[in-house]
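Reproducibility note. Readers wishing to regenerate the assembly model reported in the main text can use the exact inputs given here. Chain order matters: entities are listed in the order in which they were concatenated for prediction.
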Amino acid sequence: MRKRLLGFLLLSGLTIATAWAQTRTLSGVIKDASGKPIPGANVVIRGTTRGTTTDSQGRYTLSDVPANGRIQISNIGFLATEKTVSSGQTMLDISLTEDVSNLEEVVVTGLASSIKRSNAANAVSSVNADKLVGTTRPATLDNALAGKVVGANIVSNSGAPGGGVSVRLRGISSINLTTEPLYVVDGIIINNSQFNTGSGSRAFSGATTTSNVSSQDQSANRLADLNPADVENVEVLKGPSASAIYGTRANAGVIVITTKRGKSGKTKVNFGQDVGWAQALRFLGSSNWDNAKIDKFFEVYGISGYTPEDYKRLLAESNGRTWDYEKLAFGEKGMLRNTRLSISGGNERTKFFISGGLTDENGIMKRTGFNRNSLRANIDHKLSDRIDVSMSSSYINSSSSRGFLGNDNNGVSIGYNIAYIPNFIDITRRADGSYPTWEYTGQNPFEIIDRGDNLDRTNRFLQSGSATLYLMKKEKSTLKLLASGGVDFLLTENETYFPDDVEFQKQRANPGASRFTKNRSLYTYVQSFLTYNTSVNGLDLQSQVGALRNVQSLDLSWIQGEGLLAGQRNPLTAAVRTPDQFFQRSQDVAVDVSQEVNWKDRIIARAGVRFDRSSLNGDNTKWYAFPRANVAINLTRFDFFQSNIISQLKPRVAFGRTGGVPAFGNYFNSLGSVVYDGRLGAVAPTSVGLTSVGPETAQEIEGGIDIGFFNNRLSLEATYYDKTVFNLLNPFTLSPGTGVTSYRAFPVGNLQNRGIELALTANPVNKSNFNWTTTLQFWNNRSKITKLDIPEAYVGNGFGAFGRNRLRVGASPTAWYGTPIVNGQPTMYGDAQPKFQMSWYNSVRFLNNFDFSMLWHTSQGNYNSSLNLELKDEGGTSPDWGKDDDGDGIPNGADERLFGTPNNNTSYFIQNASAIRLREVALYYNIPKTAFGKLFGNTVQGIRLGVSAQNVLLFSKYFGYDTEASNFGNSATGFGVDLTPFPSSRRTFFHLSVDF
Amino acid sequence: MRHTYKSLFVGSALLLSVSSCNFFEVEKVDDPNNPTVESVLNNASAAQIAQLGVGIQNVMRNGFTTQYQISGAIGREVIQSASTDNRYFTEILGTQPLDPAGIFFPWYNSYSQTRRQAEIFLLSAEATSNLTVEQKAGVRGFARTVQAFASLNLLNMMGNTGIRTTFTDLNNPGDLLRPGPFSNYETGLAYVKSLVDDGASSLDKSGAAFAFPMTAGWTGFTTPTTFRRFNRALAARVAMYQKDWATMNTALSQSFLDLNGSMTTGPTFRYSTTAGDATNPLFQNRNTSGAPIVVQRNFISEAEAGDTRLTAKTSRRTNPRASGNIPASEFEVFMYANNTAPISIIRNEELILMAAEVAVQQNRLADAVTALDKVRVAAGLQPLATAKPTVVGNQARLIDEVLNQRRYSLFYEGHRWFDMRRYDRLAQIPKDLPTHNVFREFPKPDAEVQWDARYK
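Running the prediction on these inputs yields the following structure tokens for the assembly.
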């Protein structure tokens, strides 16, 4: 018997502990419920760092186990168990229960710490590889998260190949800045920009009249580069109470992505092949014509290029033939192909995961598609007992061809153009290769499909690494230094091109247009944390202090040529050459301290504060404090709690503050350049930066309860949150007499988001030949402006009377407004954000070798500003154009729903986009080893076959290719404007997966 | 125990080694894409001063175009026959009160901005060690003159609604939130006079040359001494609106007035098709159908026969242009041969007419007739003694004649409406339709009303 008095100087204070111990050796077998041994399970002596893992037979041996000590047994996929070793005991066999509600999963609590879910005080949603891409194969990670994260509104901007998805966690967190979450991959912040391509600019689709910046380029966000197949786990820190650890960039939440890593044991090789096709999910339809309709059509909507007589003549000439232009344009069966190869394994000291993936997807429109080739190597090495190092390396080459869709002023956008083409006019490509001119817009859409280019190519390196140094490893305490960091380097190049002899280009002063864009981004991130763990009087204490530095730089440039030499693409030889160059750089640093206290897993409390400074703030030296605190109480762990029914009862509450950095340049006062009399001149700006600009700050309090029944075969996670964003930055209009029109960014008000998140998980049937797991989720959110220091103002992009968002106290900043204007006030309509969402995930394993899963998702009460029907009405092609629903003798297409008719107002364009969707469905079959064992010797360990589909069914009355659409891309406000985007597709796959 | 302390020490040292001193520093990022205002406010280089000087000459062009168009419509010199927006020939012609939130205020922002931009030029020069005292005075003289030009135009449009005249420091960002109140027309004129006189006294101390290049439009006015003649011409305009005839007479004598000189002598705004420059915004092609600016019919019908100014400034349309139910105009404005033609700022013709006016007002009627005849003869008309003998020697009729000559000499150059207002003759302005009215001045723009209501 030894007696020892230990005094520890903690970073947070001084505590004293006393401990006695008597020891012996303990051994046994760890098994699952069916009695099968579990290899690789962790067996640890509670309150110490000493432990072991079970061997392939599930056996373990532990020496120096104190009398009456407790040992903890854990393994992924099973609920952790704690057993007391009675005096004299040397053998202990333990059986583990399956962890249906993922209580054992580890969730992030700090930049260098984590906690198991059963002890977490935040409702952190996590999605593991199986849920992410185990059912089917969404092309991008954000798309794979849709419907799976309670509290998230994940919406595709269009159906274009290669992504373009907006993720909004717990409402919107800004009105002008980004409201996309921060993405962290293997510990480093990565770039998720949507780069401008120029496809929406004047020389191309003309969606915007300016030649340079365009918010209507319909580009993808760069998360598309990450191969979802490499991802082990995604954790979603939805609000400041959880994301406060990321400080000044975490207002919109943080998505923490962890890629797969090797495990010690036999080397595993997995080969996967998916083959499938994409097909248009919906068509808008068209309608037939007769002479009466032509007369009526021209009466209400005279169009240029044709007279009623032209139409009548063409109708007669068509001899009853019609052309379905939507099917001709969007009717391709796009081939989808995914190939994966991964090799993983290792030993006690070194583990590795190497993978390669090839994705080749064709769109539902000719000459569109998405390609991604990725390589990854994740290596972990135990240098010594005290030093662990790990490295994650990835190279990605991705490219896409997205066509020209959405808004347009040049007749280039395919969907927009087709909306105007009557089905009796033949504009299909002629046998001689020519394209008949569609006189109305002056451009034949099929010529654009065949000859226009809107391409992007990305080469990207993601490189991160970490080193853990155990400075002290003792019986009851450890001190470790974790240093980590990495680099995200990417170069995205865009090529947008129309030949000089494309119809609409021929009419331009300088026919032929090409633009080559280069977007170079370099993000570097380093952090260093000291973590001290100790156990004192039954309290597990963790103290942490650290610092980090986050540097981002962007170099965006393009050169555009208008008026190209015949057949030439290089803009350098063009008649009009326009160059552009933009640099951006920023640095953030932070220091963080935190303290966690865990009383026997009964009460777990954590508090911390992070101080951030950023070069994006007006004062680069100022530290902004972002505190956080939370507590969770596991009532079932208390001795007084005795229940055979309730297996978990955990009330929890969490608080946190975060920031949202100002946009680059918000404090700049920059001189403009002019040329006068051939000389270069400089002039003072007419809109100015705010030299004192600071971050938008968000504060959230979240409370909830986690309840588990019947050994957690049924569990409910219920959360309520209240998140307020202070000092929303918005342009601030000044007295024009000062000579300055506005501050570009000024704190003008506050925004509140409140909501409820419920997740019910059950394992109703758990038989050896039938196992059914189901998860039902419900979540809602209400956004509201609670303070506004400026007059009511429109915010975000939009098309005027077709609906705009507006800042109004007491109302949602994403609600639509428009005509009629009553007493100078526009009328308010529905909200672009849903009232609530629900999802229902099911996974069934039956007949031993079959897996069936499906995901249903509904979004209710969300409204789009939709121009789809308006375009079709203006073209006379809406399916119900000629019907007369209100019986007033005026056909629908010419009635008051048509913009410009006397009784028309915005209500006709704010359309309910509620939908019920079968997002994912799949059936897999694991071929029994007995069936092929002999065939391949013993090299093949498993073969899995399957069939799956994504975006299978969409139930909605909404008139559009999809209820999810955003003409202006990812934006805090002004999303949900739907203007003939790239149509969504249903994707069907066959799968083969072989384990060696 | 000792081991624990040692570990902590080593750990902290390691943490700090990663987190070396610079680790916690965040650079002050200046705009990498543009020079900053701060860079010129803190010891600007000679090159920066030169560029600001070119810049201010550039922005001095802003605002007057829309002023000419809008005041030209109110003064019934022209009709803006816009095909897409009938407010250009209804609201502006008085069919309804001017909408403070409407489309007729672009000049308001432009002039206000030019005034501030000139102030920053001035502040920049004062805060540098790279200019001599004389050169600093030169910048001040030029900047104040530009401010006087912009402010006088702004004030004349606003009339007795007035303008904001006090700014503690136009550059201090905080002060942008505290602009002074609106002053009435009289106080506004006193403010403009203080600007133009400060400009002149600074120019007196400016030595032989400016520290910045003078662009081609200022040929003949490129030194402080010669530029001061332009300043005094402007001062004469200010005095004219103040009806301070003695001061006006003195200012004219120090200006580039030359009774025997060319009518067109004077500085001009220049235009080009060079990228970054602007083309002549008042140039219009003949016989366009989109939004031609046509001549109000009375300007043609009330002209004296043989007045060459009609053919110099207008052109007969191939098809007369009606605007709404306003009777068609047969003539449209055609004052500039092409889109790079220069536009006169102040020219000798105006100075001669000012000399005539001040002579009438000071009861030097013979001098007035001499001056008026210079303009008449240049326009192809007979001298007054021949053409209008009853006018000679009649002070009241000579005033009429001055205004009449100003109408034709300074057509569509932003004078007619103000001339009729300062002589209280707005009622004499011809109205095409009974529903029309002639505004006296502009109301406060909505943005200013909002500002004062919220933040005053």
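We highlight two features of this model. Chain B has a mean pLDDT of 93. Chain B has 17 helices and eight strands.
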